[in-house]
């Protein structure tokens, strides 16, 4: 049989092509003969075909089910193909529908008009079978890509939902972790009689690597420590918790900075020796990539003498009673970097009315909105302004001023500080409570 004999009213057969995947096609044409010819070809190629004789009846059919493809004549009485196409695009559908317009119009302006109203492709009458098949194949590719995209989007949404659930769970755990980390600071303020100690800890995230604290050694001696573990997050927080155990304020026998003397009384070990021992522990006994900076202080409440050792922590700030400020220290390597690192000790002598601020680099390295760091000079200016403010109120005001300097943005690093305010020692502090003079 020749190709000419196989053609019927412009619709030709092409049986050598592979069958296409089953899809539903809605054929819309006011000509019964044209619908019959198109349906015969489409059914032979494996499509499920539904017919409509007008745009309005086609819309009613589309309300019942969603055809994958639509082949619609342009020129029809009542609602023409262009109007139907526009109405078809306005329907709410779960999947995309491929729309082909049949027309005798070949002018570019008319084609552009059809595209503007939502048509995907055009075929001119009389319809050539091979061209129709090619246009349907192109539509199949687009619909398959759309199906794959929809499936991928579904998988992405499902994955995002799972991730959100995991994030919510982790976020809840981190909130609790932050509470636990904050609980490592059992007291934010303690009055030791001749001196008062105040603490501040502000994590840049849920949990952080900063920790500050104090521990009592005897009636006249206390220890102070400020730690800043490298990094942020859970692993850094776990490291600070472990270090807090080594400098315990509740179990002196577990505190590596305290030893029992020959008389059975507790006494402080030299701060430099303690830091060297912690350096050994981190490098020899802890499997961690973290290191930390540390300032450890031994405070004699009777004399005001403060003996300190510094391991990468910023220089402490000494503010005299008259408001003048000094900042000095030997610096030193962070703990956990180099085997056998040596640390130097230095001293400060506090007189009544003097105070000592020990702080993390999150304060002096706090940036302004323009990226300018606060640095030591900026901190000194803040402390001068807060000269008359004492205790926890002074630290809270310092954090507020720091937030103001940062332009209300979140701090990029953890912020922590210890404020030691010295009033001077009185012999009555060693007397039993019932022998101390009344304040009234």
Automatic annotation (TrEMBL):
The cross-references to InterPro entries, in alphabetical order and at most eight, read:
Bact_Sigma-Reg, CheY-like_superfamily, PPM-type-like_dom_sf, PPM-type_phosphatase-like_dom, Sig_transdc_resp-reg_receiver
Query: Could you tell me which SUPFAM superfamilies the record lists for this protein?
Result: CheY-like (SSF52172), PP2C-like (SSF81606)
Q: Which residues form the Response regulatory domain?
A: 24-140
Q: Name one GO molecular function term.
A: phosphatase activity
Q: What keywords sit in the KW lines?
A: Coiled coil, Hydrolase, Phosphoprotein
Q: Where are the transmembrane segments?
A: none
* Residues recorded with modification 4-aspartylphosphate: 73
Q: GO BP, one example?
A: phosphorelay signal transduction system
Top-level taxon of the source organism: Bacteria
Coiled-coil regions listed in the entry: 142-180
**Record's signal peptide:** none
Write one Pfam family the protein is assigned to.
Answer: SpoIIE
Protein name, UniProt field: SpoIIE family protein phosphatase
What organism is recorded for this protein?
Answer: Rhodalgimonas zhirmunskyi
């Amino acid at each position: 049989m020749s190709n000419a004999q196989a053609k019927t009213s412009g619709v030709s057969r092409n049986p050598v092509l592979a069958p296409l995947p089953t899809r539903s096609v809605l054929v819309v044409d006011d000509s019964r003969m044209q619908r019959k010819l198109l349906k015969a070809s489409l059914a032979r190629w494996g499509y499920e075909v539904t017919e409509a004789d007008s745009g309005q009846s086609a819309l009613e059919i589309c309300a019942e089910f969603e055809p994958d493809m639509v082949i619609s004549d342009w020129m029809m009485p009542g609602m023409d193909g262009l109007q139907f196409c526009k109405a078809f695009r306005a329907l709410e559908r779960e999947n995309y529908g491929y729309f082909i317009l049949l027309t005798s119009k070949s002018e570019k302006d008319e084609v552009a008009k059809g595209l503007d109203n939502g048509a995907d492709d055009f075929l001119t009458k009389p319809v050539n079978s091979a061209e129709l098949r090619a246009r349907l194949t192109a539509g199949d590719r687009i619909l398959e890509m759309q199906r794959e995209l929809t499936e991928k989007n579904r998988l992405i949404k499902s994955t995002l939902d799972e991730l959100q659930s995991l994030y919510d769970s982790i976020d809840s755990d981190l909130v609790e972790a932050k509470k636990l980390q904050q609980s490592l600071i059992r007291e934010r303020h303690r009055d030791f009689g001749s001196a008062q100690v105040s603490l501040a800890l502000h994590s840049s995230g849920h949990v952080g690597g900063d920790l500050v604290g104090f521990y009592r050694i005897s009636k006249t001696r206390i220890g102070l420590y400020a730690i800043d573990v490298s990094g942020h997050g859970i692993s850094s927080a776990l490291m600070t918790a472990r270090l807090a155990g080594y400098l315990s304020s509740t179990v002196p026998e577990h505190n590596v900075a305290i030893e029992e003397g020959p008389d059975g009384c507790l006494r402080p070990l030299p701060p430099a020796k303690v830091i060297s021992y912690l350096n050994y522990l981190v490098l020899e006994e802890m499997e961690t990539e973290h290191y930390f900076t540390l300032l450890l202080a031994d405070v004699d409440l009777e004399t005001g003498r403060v003996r300190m050792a510094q391991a990468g922590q910023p220089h402490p700030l000494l503010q005299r009673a008259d408001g003048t400020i000094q900042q000095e220290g030997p610096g030193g390597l962070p703990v956990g970097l180099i085997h056998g690192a040596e640390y130097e000790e230095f001293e400060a002598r506090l007189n009544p009315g003097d105070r000592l601020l020990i702080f993390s680099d999150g304060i002096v390295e706090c940036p302004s909105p323009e990226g300018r760091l606060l640095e030591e000079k900026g901190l000194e200016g803040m402390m001068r302004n807060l000269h008359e403010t004492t205790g926890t109120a002074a630290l809270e005001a310092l954090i507020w001023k720091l937030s103001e300097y940062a332009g209300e943005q979140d701090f990029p690093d953890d912020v922590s500080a210890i404020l030691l305010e010295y009033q001077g020692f009185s012999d009555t502090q060693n007397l039993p409570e019932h022998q101390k003079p009344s304040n009234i």
